[in-house]
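Open question from group meeting: does this chain pack into something compact, or does most of it stay loose? Before anyone orders reagents, we agreed to write out a predicted structure and look at it together. Recording both the input and the output here so the notebook holds the full record.
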Amino acid sequence: MRDVVEIGLGKTAQRGYHLDDVAIVPSRRTRDVDDVSTAWQLDAYPFRIPCVAHPSDATMSPETAVMLGRLGGLGVLNVEGLWTRYEDPTKLLEELAALDEDAPATRRLQEVYAEPIKPELIGERVRQIRAGGVTVAVRVSPQHTLALAPVILDAGVDILVIQGTLVSAEHVSTTDEPLNLKEFIADLDLPVVAGGCTDYKTALHLMRTGAAGVIVGIGGDEWSTTETVLGIRVPMATAIADAAAARRDYLDETGGRYVHLIADGDVQTSGDIAKALGCGADAVMLGEPLSLAAEAPAGGAWWHSAASHPQLPRGAFGVAGEALGPMEKLLYGPADEPDGQLNLFGGLRRAMAKTGYRDLKEFQRVGLVLDR
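Structure tokens returned:
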């Protein structure tokens, strides 16, 4: 039974828990790390590691999307980002990488993202990723899905990610034609991932639209200002567990249709990845951790896709720091620091081995303890 706390006369609040509040409990069995599999599959597309890239221009270019795909993850390019607004945004990315803490970074982000999206560049970027021989995934916001969908679908993507800070299956508008996710997805013959969401009801409604995957969370990290701007903070351990309960009920409701959960928020280290999957996620969405790769297009700088919003930016600009190593080292090691930022999925494999689980589906049953 969920804890409900009275915060004052006439107002109660449910208690939620962050990933930092929980810890994994070893079982009676351990397993050889070489016998552990981190593979997962979204619709018809298999991946070696449960890693989906957060669609920020700081980390995802056509080149790095291909690189992540070849390393076993899923790169996601933002079709509302710099790569579809400029023929070659390299110099702009270099300029952003050079900004220091005193620079008016948010204002500069708003300026560079004011350039209109060029539909022809969407097709060009998709072709570049397709030529790399990997699964092609692009992100579009709910507000622009109807306008950009024809161009995206003509370009021939494999997976469509409809992502906003918060996405619902029932958006109400008296001024614009709202996106009806259920009708939209029903007309497509490719898998759609939608989110983020933060609770059981929204997760269940998104599953009922026919989405193949649901993003849980709002990408919260130390640079996110969604709490400061909107007052919204997501306790990720609780959000993932609630969404996993919705998935279980939807599985029963449909007689076996499984919807994948992708955790987006509070995930910085290999231990965070393990705890997110232990709470019930199938994969994690990595943002800032990938900005530390030597190949990151913004040279170590980091910003969320909402950080450039023209009226209400939600996300601080993280100035460029020193790269930790190539992307392969971040994902697979070897690690030469003990802080969990390197060998992210080697750390996950080790956690699974230490608790005796063979694959990700089994690992979702791992025991958890509240210790803070």
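Observations to bring back to the group:
The longest strand covers residues 213-220.
The chain has 14 helices and 14 strands.
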